[in-house]
Amino acid sequence: MKSLIILIISFLLITIGSFASSATPEEHEKFLKNLPVKDMVTMIALGKKTCTQCKMMAPILEKLKVKFEGKAAIVFINLLQDPEQQYVYRLKALPTQIFFDQDGKEVFRHVGFFSEKEIIAQLKKMGVE
Question: What is the pTM of this model?
Answer without folding.
Answer: 0.80
